[in-house]
Write a structure and sequence with these properties.
Layout (H helix, E strand, L loop, with lengths): L11 E3 L6 E3 L3 E5 L3 H6 L9 E5 L4 E3 L5 E4 L8 E3 L1 E7 L8 H4 L3 E8 L2 E2 H9 L5 H4 L5 E3 L3 E2 H4 L6 E6 L2 E7 L7 H11 L7 E3 L7 E2 L5 E6 L3 E7 L1
Keywords: Hydrolase, Metal-binding
GO molecular function: acetylpyruvate hydrolase activity; fumarylpyruvate hydrolase activity; metal ion binding
EC number: 3.7.1.20
Amino acid sequence: MLSVIPNPPRITLPIHGSTDLFPVRRVYCVGRNYRAHAREMGADERDPPFFFLKPADTLQVAPEGATLEHPYPPRTENYHFEVELVAALGRGGRDIPVETAGTHVYGYAVGLDMTRRDLQDEAKRQARPWELGKAADLSAPIGPLRPAGVIGHPRSGAITLSVDGSERQRGDLCEMIWSVPEQVALLSTYFELQPGDLIFTGTPSGVGPVRRGETMSARIEGVGAIALKVV
């Protein structure tokens, strides 16, 4: 049996120090998971976490040690950066206990949850879904995965983003309101998680717009760094 259209490419991530690839299934994102960012977005930091999804083909793999071109998307004049730790699941499950949820994580990467903020804000005002704001083409730049078996499970460490050398975001992984194991456990009460799922785990304060011609540099201590020039 033949496909009636060309088969879409399988979305995969490179693994640091290996020629192996990590196949991606779903991309989950958690909103407002750092206290200062929750406050700057007008939310109560005590609110329970909420999740949204990006299509897997919004991932844009950014190699380390080089600057990748990142296209400014159409239909926006307010395109925001959000640097995030990304957790990649090597095991799935439903109703995963928080005590063992960390063992389901295969590895970690640096990611950006790029957002058409004007479209997201309009969706909020009209109580509409966020996809037009959150799911632009290539709106999830991501670096190579580093296996937890190599770097462990980072619970602290600086997470930063600079634009043209000027630091815009700085936080620490220990400032997450909901830890990675807590996010995995909670997500698994809504969905049966599967190997290949990614979780963008939230961003520190300082999110803001980026313009064409500017270069974003994102770094997480012990996890990696990526650089992207907006074109």
